[in-house]
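Structure ticket #2291
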Amino acid sequence: MSRLMHVASGPYAPPVPARELTAVSADGARLHVEVHGPENAPAVVLAHGWTCSTAFWAAQIRELAVDHRVIAYDQRGHGRSPASRACSTDALADDIEAVLKAALAPGEKAVLAGHSMGGMTVMAASTRAGFRQHAAAVLLCSTGASRLVAESTVVPMRAGRLRTALTRRILGSRAPLGPVTPLARRILKYATMGPGSHPQMVEACSRIVHACPRKVRYAWSQVLDLLDLAHGVRELTVPTAVVVGTADRLTPVAHARSLVAALPNCVGITELPGLGHMTPIEAPELVTGKIRELVTTYAQVKEGA
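Resolution: structure written out below.
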């Protein structure tokens, strides 16, 4: 589990959940789940990305929980979810199925929002019966289905074998990130955020990412390196919206456009000029608004509400 290091005040400070529960995945992995907002409100499920935690969604949780039931969970090894030897796209799919089963009533529909590896989680689960039972619509933020290392522009040089090799070494580094220093904030901002990101946003992201244990960071980097979820994209048949920053170095805009071309039921793409990879933090109102739109258009309140 991470050291749970995050900002303690301001819009990116995690709200206190109404309740917490534990979802048990297919292999016995235990996942920390938080539930915010009214019990009978329309449901939203949030899946964070690599090296993050439920704290990443603080701004969305705070706004949506006024009139939605917001369910956020920590991916295995992240936040309060213990690490597991099983790191794979199948494990990601197992985990979100377990969360949906634990947090939603049978047949209850929800809007699912996934950022980065959270979006890949949704793609990996698209063929699963548990996913199809509960997914009303999906928002994919700053994510891709394959060729993540080859298409990353974190290393500022021409695409090719050398850039891919250097990127693989950087993203797959086993080195500890250490404390959040001014230099660490500058590096993280360059790699993951747009040049105009407010210092408050950079601080929030830095604390969340630096809290991720290095062994967990490395293990999941190997999964992302070999990622190929093209089949999952084609099977993601629920209405799906896509959001991407045009300055995203980790999953450049080409990934989002490829998703749009492959999705069977894409309901729109939003390209955010000058924004980087951390769109839910860099553009919190827009991402929250997109989730609200999907709930209003596609989600159902559970029976008896």
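Closing remark: The CA atoms of residues 1 and 164 lie 30 Å apart.
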